[in-house]
């Protein structure tokens, strides 16, 4: 379990700019724990996660080089609730544990935990405070279409499957507006960095219960 560690749970909808915001905090020397990076690591070639997946689905979910064929795995779990639940039950505890291990190993004054589905997967229970990167749905659609080369309909489908903007904002303790330029973003990060440093210092000086 984590003791006396100040953790900021950073989240936001698709194309909201989570990575950009996280990297701005990293410029202050703050360590990042990225759920997406960890999710890839737990199914890397040679991992226990990949071995369990192969045992369940067979070698056809592997690429020629022995890496996981993500598209093939998606086809296996798409519209199959039993298989999807099995996969989630396998991977989520692995991802959660690895995130906690990285947080415990960190040495910065506080830690940014970047989790796209922070609220949906109830990982906000692991953090000290929550920070949502917010942009309008219209901006999400245009940025995702440009970034991923997908249709508007595809992006709208993704948005419909995610927690709504209002639900996310209602749960957020801190909000960053990412609809302006990088200088506005940098100033918001700088202000929050000072606040998090102060609150982290207060946390570490509290006596243990």
Structure description:
This protein has 209 residues and is α/β, with parallel strands linked by helices. It has 2 domains: 1-30 and 108-204, P-loop containing nucleotide triphosphate hydrolases (Rossmann fold); 37-107, no CATH class. The protein contains 9 helices and 5 strands, in the order βαβααααββαααβα. It has helices at 18-26, 35-41, 48-57, 70-77, 81-105, 137-148, 152-161, 165-171, 182-205, and strands at residues 7-12, 31-34, 111-114, 129-134, 174-177. The protein has a 5-stranded parallel β-sheet with strand order 2-3-1-4-5, sandwiched between helices. It is globular, with a radius of gyration of 19 Å. The model has no long low-confidence stretch (mean pLDDT 92).
Summary of the model, kept short:
This protein is of the alpha/beta class.
From the structure above, extract its key features:
EC 2.7.1.24; Dephospho-CoA kinase; 9 helices; five-stranded parallel sheet; Depp_CoAkinase; alpha/beta; 2 domains; Rossmann fold; ATP-binding; 209 residues; 5 strands; dephospho-CoA kinase activity; globular
């Amino acid at each position: 379990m984590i003791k006396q560690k100040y953790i900021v749970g950073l989240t936001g909808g698709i194309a909201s700019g989570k990575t950009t915001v996280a990297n701005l905090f990293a410029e202050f020397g703050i360590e990042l724990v990225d759920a997406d990076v960890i999710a890839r690591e737990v199914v890397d070639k040679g991992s226990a996660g990949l071995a369990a997946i192969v045992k369940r689905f067979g070698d056809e979910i592997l690429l020629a080089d022995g890496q996981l064929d993500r598209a093939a795995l998606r086809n296996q779990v798409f519209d199959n609730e039993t298989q999807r639940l099995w996969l989630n039950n396998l991977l989520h505890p692995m991802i959660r544990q690895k995130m906690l291990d990285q947080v415990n190993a960190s040495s910065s004054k506080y830690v940014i935990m970047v989790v796209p589905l922070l609220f949906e997967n109830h990982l906000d229970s692991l953090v000290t405070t929550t920070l949502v990167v917010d942009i309008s749905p219209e901006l999400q659609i245009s940025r995702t279409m440009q970034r991923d080369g997908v249709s508007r309909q595809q992006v709208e489908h993704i948005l419909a499957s995610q927690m709504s903007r209002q639900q996310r904002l209602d749960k957020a303790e801190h909000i960053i507006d990412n609809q302006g330029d990088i200088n506005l973003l940098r100033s918001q990060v700088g202000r929050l960095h000072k606040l998090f440093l102060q609150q982290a210092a207060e946390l570490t000086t509290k006596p243990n219960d």
